[in-house]
Amino acid sequence: MALAPGLMQRRGLFGASARVPQQQPAMTATEQPMKKGFDWGKLIGVLGDSLSIAGGGQASYVPMMQQQRLRRDAQAYAEQQYQRRRGDTLADQRSLLEYKRANPDPDYFDDNAGNRWSINPSTGEKKLIFRDPNAKRIPQKTYGPNGEEYIEYVEIPNMVNEDGTIRPAMAPQAMPQRPKGKLTPYNGGQTAIPSGNF
């Protein structure tokens, strides 16, 4: 009599036969190459399960095949989801990089009065972003009349108008081109023209 795969015949205590299931190797997640033709192993496995159920046992081949199929389907679905997320992430990063190349971020800096400026990297043009309405006070080291050193807070004037134009700090004064009047020494010092005969 032929036995189902996974079972071997053994003689029991008084010569009676006893069927003992053999250990089945653990299934791996690697894909098996497709067999050509009829799969006799599946047929024998299903018949073995039928005989096992008829003998009062439990089926083992068909549930194992179902678990393998579910595991393979779950792995394929997880791989598909991973590839789709990866493709979406790469597409997002590529479009963000192209946008940043076309529209570079301006460089920002703050001046001493607390105003925020931006500089366009392609043109070098600076533009006022925020004008601080509050006066800034910075600590400055000063000396008192008796020579003591102390800290005094000095207000920094905000020289920027609301529209971003800069007010001149002082009205420009014309530099003298030549001295005016007669040059006379201060406190009786030496004159410009020597007074002795040399």
Description of the molecule:
With 198 residues, the protein is an alpha+beta fold. Among the domains are: 45-103; 107-167, no CATH class. It is 29% helix and 20% strand. The chain is built from 2 helices and 7 strands, in the order E-E-H-H-E-E-E-E-E. The chain has helices at residues 40-54, 61-102; strands at residues 7-11, 17-21, 107-110, 116-119, 126-130, 136-143, 149-156. A 3-stranded antiparallel beta sheet has the order 3-4-5, with no helix packed on it. Strands 1-2 form a two-stranded antiparallel ribbon. Strand 6 and strand 7 form a beta hairpin. The longest helix is centred in the middle third of the chain and has 42 residues, at 61-102. The model has no long low-confidence stretch (mean pLDDT 75).
